[in-house]
Structures are given as structure tokens and as C-alpha cells.
Amino acid sequence: MTALLLLQILGFALTGTRLQLWACTAAVLATLTFPVLVFGAPLYEWDWRTLLLWTGISLVVAPVVQRMVERLDEERRLVHTANTRVERLFDDAPHGVALLNSKGRILRANTALAALVGVTPDDMVRHPFTAYQPPENDEIADHLERLVHEPDAIAISECTLRDATGNDVDVALSSRILPDESLGNIVMVNVLDISEQRRYQDRLAHLVDHDVLTGLANRRLFDLELQRHLERCRRYEPTGAVLLLDLDNFKQVNDSLGHNAGDELLVNIGSVLRRAVRSTDVVARLGGDEFGVIVTDGDQPAAAVVAQNIVDRIREHAATLDGVSRRVTASVGAVTFKAASDHSVDILALADMTMYDAKEAGRNQVALLPEGEARPPKMSARLQWQDRIEAALEDDRFELLLQPVMDMRSGRVGMAEALLRLRGENGELVPPARFLYIAERAGLMPQVDAWVIERSIAILAEVRHEVPDFCLEVNLSGHSIGDEAVERAIHQALSQHQVDPHALILEITETAAVADVALARDFAMRLAEVGCRFALDDFGAGFGSFYYLKHLIFDYVKIDGEFVANVHTSQVDRTILRSIVGIARDLGKQTVAEFVSAPEILEVIREEGVDYAQGYLIGKPIPLADFRQEFLLTDAPRILEG
What we know:
- The structure is a single chain.
- The protein is elongated, with a radius of gyration of 40 Å.
- The chain is 48% helix and 20% strand.
- By secondary structure, it is α/β, with parallel strands linked by helices.
- The chain is built from 23 helices and 21 strands.
- α22 (599-607) links the parallel β20 and β21.
- This is EAL domain-containing protein.
- Residues 382-635 form the EAL domain.
- Residues 82-151 form the PAS domain.
């Protein structure tokens, strides 16, 4: 009986509430003491005092037991809640997560990972994680193998998963071993989809080596492929040829039909060239309306056939606008690598000379450099251009046009970019794409840049008499960065014209700066100490952009037109532009958007916080007199409503 009474008390201590425990205890005490109080003797034959003593002990022990039970229940609830939260975090994680056993089989996968490969989480269980890698590579297996050799490390890799439909997904894996007493070591793998990031990287990598408009190789890639082929020719035997072609009268297309029609024609010409050669040949747009082809195999007759085929096909194409058509032709210079080996002049210079021989012979034709000749053709276009550049320097036949740059906050044009042109013999203005490459190859760019600097600072002095805060951007060639004569010309012109150096903004393109970062940094630091400012042009076109922004001194970041021209229709371009603006702002740099050609573009860049706008919507490059009349002598600031 005593045991039953005590068990009843302990039972309520373990399972009941505190009120039930005290009620039970009171009932037991009443049962024990009532007969003694009423009848003077207990109902039980054993000593009721002993029973009362044990009951008292139970009363002391029972609350302690109850508190222990409550604490254990609370801990169980906390553990259950924590496990529930962990499971929810695992299942609802925005990126893929998997738990693997020591053999690499999936113990559990979350919804995000299953969606990534196009199955359900249950479908993935018990399958090897490597079952979701493409059969042709072992990236995931190699990733997991690293944990075997370094069990305490965190393995990080970029791999490829293949989904249920056979498509590949680029992912970043981060894995580590989690010790588990019941299951042994388990591996937790975090999987992040980086497909979009890879697409951005691929696009940027493509932009480094390809022309934005036509998608063809650019001059950089063309030069690299040319050097590779020249090396093969030196190791084995000369084979193949270089074709340089220039469109005849292309300027008439732009002047009569507009730049859009001209751009469309250039794209079509690029397609013609691709179809006219083999897939192993290299087709590039070298600038403006000039193209280059590396025919990687064949003799001179074969090169002549390819070149003539190109001329014939281009003749069939026309640019059309509102029913008006303009046809263009092409002049092609062809030089085989065998013919070039007979001369000390490089093959591009020979092809350039030969191309202008075709132009002088009447255009719309092919000129071949005969093999075995002792020297280049007598009439050399390259030498002619070199002579024209030298004469322009001597006779002051270069001219500067000014393109306005608008402040997005005020709508005012208080800045411009100076753009170089060469006045031809018949009075036409020749754009720099036609002669700067030759000037660079001939070593004339420091002299050209010195002329541009002196003239630009003279313009600054003249304009700032009327607009004291006017600033001017001036482009510098990579060949002039660090050149003592150019640096001396800057100091002399600033002193001579009494111009505040702060008004002079020197533009360096990313490709110019990359030639020698240390040289560019020292050059910029010396001039920055004087007060000159710097702008990084074409920002975003290559992988080096952010490196240069970190290591070089710049006040302005000019966003490459590739990310501006379609920013109103492309979410990708808008995202990239927003990122560039944010980085520049965090670094204390101001941004300039180039290629602003439509009100919709202006509205987008205003929303994204760009500081300045430049492009045909703001104004085309024009002479100083026209620039003053249109932008500086007006009664009110030039404001373009978005």
C-alpha cells in the first residue's frame, strides 16, 4: 500500500501538473492522518508514522523530479524546434545543398538543387553526386577527391552539372566534411548557379577580341592570329596570305543614307566575308570600313581566287533607305606569306600598300604583290599616308572638332571632347580611323598628340574667357603615355596660355593603359600633381577595366558605348551600367555615358545616376565656331527633358 501511494505521488510528479501533484499529496496525507485524528489510531497495522515520513520524503523529492522532467521536456522542445528550423533552412535555401555519405552518394538534397537538375529531391537520394556531371569530364569527382586528401579543408570549385534534359549548368561548389557519429563522415555540398555570371564573363571576353558591330575579330585578335601564323611559317614553310580590303565610297553611304544604314551594310559585309572563306581562316574588322582576312593555307593563285570572290560578292550588296540604294565596292590588297618573306617590311604594311595600289588602279579590284620582287610596290599607300601625316603636322592641316558633354544634373554643356580630323587635299575631313594606325606604326603619334594638346589648350584659353568653368577632354594615344615630349608639350601649353590645369581632362583608353600600367600610373601622377584630371575611356570593354580603375589615377569613368547604345532595351546592359555607376560612385569617380543617341537612353542613364551624357542626341562633333554658337552663347542652359 505504501508503495502504491508513493508511486501515485511520483506519477503525478513525472506526468502531472504542479497543482495535480499538490492535490494528490494532500489526499494521501488526509488518508493517513484522518483516522488518527478521529479515532486515535491508524487504519493500517504498520506504523503510520513511518508511512508519514516516507510521504514527506516523497513531497520533497517529487518537485525536484518534476522540475527535472520539465527541463528535459523544454530541452526536447528546443532540440525539435532547432531541427525543424535547420530542415526548413536546408529545404528552403535559395541555392542548392546536398548531403553525401562517405562514398559520395546523396543522402539528402534540397528543392533548389533538385530544380537545378530538373528532378525531385527524392529522385536524387541514393544516387552518386557524380551522376549529375557530364560524362566527358570529371570535375565533380576531382572536387570531392580533394576532400579525401584534405578532410579539414573547404573545397571550392567551378564545375558543370548536366540536367535531366541534357543541358549543362555552370555551378560553383563549396564542400566540407561534417563528422557524424551515427552515419560516419558526411559531406555537405553547397551548389550555386553561376550560369548568368558565366554568360557575362563570356560576353566580356568576346568584347575584348571582337568588333561590337559585326561580331568579327577585332584588330587585337587579328594581330594575335597573324603572329601565330607567322610563327608557323617560320617553323615550317610560308603558306597562305593576308588580304586587306577597304570599302570604296563608303562615306557616301553614311552621308546620304545615315549611319544606321552604313552600320547595317558593314554587318552584311562581315557576313559576306565569313561565307567567302573557310572556317579555319580569320576575318576581322580592323576599323571603320577596313577589313582583314588571314588565309591560313594556299598559294598565290588560291589567294587571288579568294580575293576576287570577295570583291564580286561585295559588289552585289547595297545599302537601302526609303527605297534609295547605294552600292559599294571593295579594293583588296593580297600578299602571300611567301611574297612577304622576300621583304624586310612587315606583311601588313605590304598588304596596306598593295590595297592602295588597287584603289589607285580604279578601285573595285584586287591587287597582288608579285612573289620574288626585291622591294614593295612603287606606289605605296602606307607611305603616302605617312607623307600626308607628316605634311599635316608641318602645314597645320589637322583640325579639332568638339563634341558636347552634358551635365545630367543641370542639363548644361560645360564640357566637350576634342576629336581629331585631317583635312584632305580635296577638302574632306578624314576621320582618325583612316590614319591613326599608320601614324602609330610610323612612330608619329607623339608628334600628333603634341599638336592636339597644344591646340586643345589654346581652345580652352579662348573658351574660358567666356565660360570660366569650361573643361575639355583630350585623347592620348598609348604611344604617347610617358613620352617626355608630350609631357613637356602639356606643361608648355598650360603655361603659355595661362590655363588652369584642372580644366584639362586627359583621356586614356583601356587598351592604351594596358600597354604599361606602371608607366601610365607614373605619367598620370606627375600631371595630377600639376592639377590635370584623367578619364578612363571605353570602361567595361575588357577584363582589365577594374584593375586599371584600382591602380591608375582617374577622375572620370567613360562607360563603353556597347553598354549604353541598347541600355533602354537590354536588361543585361542596364545591369552592367548600374554596376559600373555604383562602383565608380563608391570610389569617388564621376561617370560619362557615351553613345547617347535617343531620349529613351538619356532617361535610363538619368535613372541609373550617370553624371554626364555624350552622344549624337546631345550633339555631333562640330568646329569650335559652331560649338560656341550652339552651346556656349545661348541665353539658357541646354536642358534635354527625359
